[in-house]
Recover the amino acids of this structure.
C-alpha cells in the first residue's frame, strides 16, 4: 500500500494537484498575513471565502464574464473586511467575535442569499455561471516538476504573484511601513501622527479582497459552481499557515504548500485501503502539529535569548 | 451615588441590548420583504407563531436544552478570555460517546442515562486537555487548534459510525437503537428532563463562577492575565481548568440532547450548537445566570424560523443572518456610545444643579 502511495506522490500529476489545492489556501493565508501584520486577527476569512465563492458565481452568471465574477468576489470581500473594521474599530466589537459573525454569514447566510438572488437551494448547479480559464502551456507537459504548471488556473499564477506583491507592499512601500508600524506598536504609530484606524481599515480591505479571490477560485475553478460548505475550513487552515509562516508572505506560501500537499495526499489515498474519513483528517492533524511545533520553537528561542541575556548580565 | 451610577449603566446596557435586537429584527424584516411573496405571513410566523399553542411553547423549551449547556460552556471559557471554539466538536463527541454507552452497555434504568451522560462529559473534558495543554505548554493558538479539532472529531465520529457501529438494516446511516433503559424521559411532548438538568447546571455554574475562588480566578485571568500571574495565581492551571469545564459542559449538552430527543445516533456533520453557544454567551455577557434568558430568546427565534420555513416561503438559514447581526451589535461595546455619553452628562448636570443651590444655602 505504501509503495502505491509513494509511487503516486512523486509524480508531476501529484505536484499539479498540490498547486491546485494550495491556491485558495494561499490567497487566504496572504489575506491573513496582511491583517495580522496590521495587528488585526481576521478569523472571518472562512466566511469571506464562502461569500466570495457565492458572489463570484452570481456575478459571472449575470454578466457572463468570469473576470467580472472574480473581481466582484474580491470586492464583496473588501466590503466584508471594511464591515468587520467598522464594527471592531468604530463600534468596539471584539475582532474575533466579528470574525465569527462573518463566518456565520458565510455558513447559513450564503444559502439564504443564494435563494434570495437565484431561487436555488443549496447549490448553484442550475445557474449558467462562468469558469476561470486555465492557462494552457502544452510545451511544459512531460517536463518533470515544471509539467505541474501546464494546466493551472490563471488565478494560481495570480496567487503566486500576490506572494511577491504582498512582500513588496509590506517591505518596500510607505503603506507597508505604516501597516507594520501599526501592527507592532499602535501607540507609537499614533504618536507620530499615523491614523491607526485608517491603516487597519486598509489592511482589512486588502485582506478581504484576497480572501474573496480565494473564494472565487473555489466556485469558479476548483469546483463547478457554488455548494453549501464548499470552503470546508480552508479559511481556518490559512490562519494556521500564516501563524506557521511567521506572518511573512514567503513563509505563509511554504506552509500553505505543506497543507496543500497534506490535502492532496488525502485525496490520493482515497482509493487505497485506508478509510476515507480518517484520511480526510490529515490536513487538520498536520495543521495542529505544525502549529504546535512552530509555537514550541518560538518559545524555545525566547527562552534561549533570555538565558543568554541573563548570562551576559551576570558576566558583566 | 455608586448605586445610581450602576443603575444608569444597567439602564443603558438593557437599552443597548434592545436596540441590538431591534436592529437585527429590522434586518430580518427587510430581507423578508425582499424575498417573500407573503411578507406579512412570514413575519408573523417568525415573530409570533411560537406563541401559537402549548405544543409550540414546549418546543421552544426543547430547543433551549442544548443551548443552555453550550451557552454555559462558552461563558466559562470566554470568562477567562480563552477563545476555545471546540464546544462544537465536544457536543458531537459527547453525544456520540453517550450513544455508544446507551447502545452497548446494558444497565438498570435511571443509572443508565446518568452513566451515559458521564461518559460523554468525561471524554470531552479529556478532549479539551489537548488544545489547553498545547497552548499552555507549547504556546499553540487555541483558536486555530480548536477549529481544527472540530473537523478532526467530525471525521473520526463519521469513521466509527460508517465502518463499525452502523445499523446495516437501515437505509440511511445511523446506529442501532439505544437500549430502552438509556433514554431521558420526557416532561411533556418531546421536551425531556434534560431541561431540568440544564437549569440546574445554570445554578451550579453561576455559583462556581461568582462564589468560588476558582471562579474568581477564572474571571481575574480574563480581566488581566499578567496581573493575575503577578499576584500569584497559577494562570496556566486556570486556563486548563476553564477549558476542561467548558468541554465537560458542552459534552453534557450533546449527551443530554442525544438521549433526550433521539433514539439512534445519526449526526454525520457537526450539529452547530457550539456556535449557538457563542451567540448565547455574548447575549448573556458571559454571565451564566443570564444564559437561560439568552437561550430562550434564541430558541424562540429558531422555532419562529422553522415555522416561517414551513408555512411561508423563507429559508430557515435566515436565522444565521439574524444571529450574526445580533452578535455584531450586542458585542459592540461602543454601540450607542454617543447616547450613553449624553445620558451621563445629563445626569451629571442634574446632580450639579441639585448640589449648587444646596451649597449656596449653606
Amino acid at each position: 500500500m505504501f509503495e502505491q502511495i509513494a509511487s503516486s506522490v512523486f509524480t508531476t500529476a501529484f505536484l499539479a494537484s498540490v498547486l491546485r489545492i494550495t491556491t485558495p489556501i494561499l490567497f487566504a493565508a496572504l489575506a491573513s498575513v496582511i491583517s495580522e501584520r496590521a495587528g488585526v486577527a481576521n478569523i472571518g476569512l472562512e466566511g469571506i471565502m464562502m461569500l466570495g465563492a457565492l458572489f463570484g458565481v452570481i456575478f459571472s452568471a449575470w454578466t457572463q464574464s468570469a473576470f467580472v465574477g472574480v473581481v466582484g468576489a474580491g470586492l464583496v470581500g473588501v466590503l466584508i473586511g471594511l464591515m468587520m473594521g467598522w464594527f471592531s474599530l468604530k463600534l468596539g466589537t471584539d475582532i474575533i467575535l466579528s470574525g465569527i459573525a462573518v463566518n456565520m454569514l458565510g455558513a447559513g447566510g450564503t444559502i439564504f442569499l443564494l435563494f434570495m438572488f437565484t431561487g436555488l437551494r443549496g447549490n448553484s448547479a442550475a445557474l449558467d455561471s462562468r469558469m476561470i480559464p486555465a492557462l494552457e502551456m502544452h510545451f511544459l507537459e512531460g517536463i518533470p516538476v515544471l509539467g505541474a504548471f501546464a494546466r493551472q488556473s490563471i488565478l494560481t499564477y495570480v496567487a503566486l504573484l500576490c506572494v511577491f506583491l504582498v512582500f513588496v507592499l509590506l517591505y518596500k512601500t510607505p503603506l507597508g511601513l505604516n501597516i507594520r508600524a501599526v501592527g507592532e506598536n499602535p501607540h507609537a504609530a499614533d504618536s507620530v501622527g499615523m491614523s491607526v484606524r485608517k491603516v487597519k481599515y486598509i489592511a482589512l480591505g486588502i485582506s478581504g479582497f484576497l480572501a474573496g479571490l480565494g473564494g472565487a477560485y473555489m466556485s469558479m475553478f476548483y469546483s463547478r459552481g457554488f455548494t453549501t460548505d464548499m470552503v470546508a475550513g480552508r479559511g481556518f487552515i490559512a490562519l494556521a499557515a500564516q501563524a506557521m509562516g511567521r506572518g511573512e508572505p514567503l513563509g505563509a506560501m511554504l506552509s500553505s504548500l505543506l497543507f496543500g500537499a497534506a490535502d492532496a495526499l488525502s485525496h490520493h489515498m482515497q482509493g487505497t485501503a485506508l478509510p476515507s474519513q480518517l484520511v480526510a483528517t490529515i490536513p487538520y492533524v498536520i495543521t495542529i502539529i505544525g502549529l504546535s511545533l512552530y509555537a514550541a520553537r518560538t518559545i524555545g528561542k525566547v527562552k534561549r535569548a533570555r538565558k543568554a541575556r541573563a548570562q551576559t548580565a551576570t558576566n558583566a | 451615588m455608586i448605586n445610581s451610577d450602576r443603575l444608569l449603566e444597567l439602564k443603558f446596557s438593557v437599552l443597548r441590548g434592545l436596540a441590538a435586537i431591534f436592529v437585527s429584527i429590522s434586518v430580518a424584516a427587510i430581507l423578508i420583504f425582499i424575498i417573500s411573496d407573503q411578507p406579512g405571513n412570514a413575519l408573523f410566523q417568525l415573530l409570533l407563531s411560537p406563541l401559537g399553542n402549548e405544543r409550540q411553547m414546549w418546543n421552544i423549551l426543547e430547543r433551549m436544552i442544548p443551548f443552555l449547556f453550550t451557552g454555559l460552556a462558552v461563558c466559562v471559557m470566554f470568562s477567562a478570555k480563552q477563545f476555545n471554539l471546540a464546544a462544537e466538536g465536544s457536543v458531537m463527541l459527547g453525544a456520540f460517546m453517550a450513544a455508544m454507552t446507551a447502545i452497548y452497555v446494558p444497565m438498570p434504568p435511571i443509572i443508565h442515562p446518568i452513566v451515559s451522560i458521564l461518559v460523554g462529559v468525561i471524554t470531552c473534558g479529556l478532549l479539551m486537555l489537548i488544545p489547553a495543554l498545547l497552548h499552555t505548554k507549547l504556546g499553540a493558538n487555541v483558536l486555530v487548534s480548536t477549529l481544527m479539532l472540530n473537523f478532526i472529531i467530525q471525521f473520526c465520529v463519521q469513521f466509527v459510525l460508517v465502518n463499525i457501529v452502523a445499523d446495516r438494516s437501515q437505509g440511511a446511516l445511523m446506529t442501532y437503537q439505544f437500549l430502552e433503559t438509556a433514554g431521558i424521559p420526557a416532561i411533556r411532548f418531546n421536551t425531556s428532563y434534560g431541561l431540568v438538568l440544564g437549569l440546574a447546571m445554570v445554578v451550579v455554574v453561576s455559583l462556581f463562577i461568582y462564589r468560588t475562588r476558582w471562579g474568581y480566578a477564572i474571571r481575574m485571568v480574563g480581566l488581566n492575565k499578567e496581573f493575575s500571574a503577578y499576584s500569584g495565581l497559577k494562570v496556566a492551571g486556570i486556563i486548563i481548568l476553564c477549558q476542561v469545564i467548558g468541554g465537560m459542559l458542552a459534552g453534557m449538552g450533546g449527551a443530554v440532547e442525544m438521549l433526550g430527543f433521539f433514539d439512534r445516533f445519526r449526526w454525520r456533520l457537526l450539529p452547530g450548537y457550539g456556535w449557538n453557544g457563542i451567540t448565547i454567551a455574548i447575549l448573556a455577557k458571559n454571565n451564566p445566570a443570564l444564559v437561560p434568558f439568552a437561550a430562550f430568546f434564541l430558541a424562540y427565534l429558531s422555532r419562529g424560523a422553522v415555522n416561517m420555513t414551513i408555512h411561508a416561503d423563507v429559508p430557515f438559514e435566515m436565522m444565521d443572518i439574524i444571529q450574526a447581526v445580533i452578535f455584531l451589535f450586542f458585542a459592540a461595546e461602543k454601540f450607542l456610545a454617543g447616547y450613553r455619553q449624553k445620558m451621563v452628562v445629563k445626569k451629571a448636570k442634574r446632580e450639579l444643579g441639585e448640589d449648587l443651590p444646596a451649597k449656596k444655602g449653606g
